[in-house]
Amino acid sequence: MPLIALGLGWLLDILHELALWSGVLLLVASGLSLYYGWNRRRAATLVEETPRTGVTDIRSPGIVRVRGTVVPEHELDTFTSPIAADEGCVLSAWEIEEKYDTAKNRTWEPAAWGIRTVPFYIDDGTDRILVDVENRTVGNETGDVFTPEKILVSDGVSLSGVQCSFDAFDIHVETDYGESPPERITAFLEATDGASVEPMAPDIVVDQSKRKYHEATLQPGDEVSVMGHAESRHDAPMSTTGPENLVLSQSDTATFRLSTAPFDELTNGVGGLLFALFTGIVGAALLAAVFAP
Fold first, then answer.
1. Which of 33, 64, 129, 282 could lock 243 by a disulfide, CB 3.0 to 4.6 Å apart?
2. Is residue 234 over pLDDT 90?
């Protein structure tokens, strides 16, 4: 009997611990799902409230939504993308995943991501408007180990104030422990604040890491949807209005969104909200059972 009681006590302790951590993890998942679903819902509502506009009809500052073809601002004002080596790019969205061979962490995790871009036009056949977004980098080397915006885009990158979505966000280069990336990637990392050739582990010291390099690019001729804040160009005459005197960019109050798919296909986030509700209820119930007197 004492052995049976001891075994039952041990089993109950394990179930208690399992319920505790399951409840915590479910509440975390609920919070992230709520954040994702709420933001998708807000984005879908904004799309509904911002009808697609012909570029020629844009006459004043404000939030606008357009779809058209990418045209470089100047014929030679493009670059070769740092990871896939695509030529003639106007925008590169990239991400580096790392894996550390340590007892604490053996899973792939995002280490750095960002966008590199030059100004370019969107031409919808009626007129063209300039798009100008700042180069951005987020990651372990910038102190932003995890930003909640990261989960808002699966095929692309999401940073504070900027979201870029693509049909695919492929892995173009993989390196093993102790293996260096191609010279073009090394040069890019060395020149980019917030990224590093060395492992970018946030809270452990490691000498080597495996890496996956993702990238998606925009080139002249690509068709994209853009929703952002139209504002006066710094070189525009004060007394004139029209798309030639405006530029689309991010602002303090409006997220700049770029997508290769039409915004009309954006989901409304209801699935994420329902999942958040379900996991939240189950997680709270588990924790209530654990701490019940």
1. 129
2. no
* Residues 25, 44: Cα–Cα separation, whole Å: 28
Cα 196 to Cα 190, 193, 233: the distances in Å are 6, 8, 34
3-class secondary structure, 171: strand
When mean pLDDT is compared across 9-18, 82-91, 92-101, 231-240, the lowest value belongs to 9-18
Asked if residue 37 lies in contact with residue 273, where contact means CB atoms within 8 angstroms, the answer is: yes
Longest pairwise C-alpha distance within the chain? 93
pLDDT of residue 250: 85
Residues 120 and 80 in one domain: yes
Q: Where do runs of H (alpha helix) occur along the chain?
A: 2-49, 183-191, 270-291
Is residue 59, in this structure, part of any structural domain at all?
yes
Based on the fold, state whether residues 283 and 148 are members of the same structural domain.
no
Helix and strand totals (H; E) in the chain: 3, 13
- Report the candidate in 212, 103, 215 with the shortest Cα–Cα distance to residue 166: 215
The CA-CA-CA angle for residues 95, 97, 99, to 5°, reads: 170
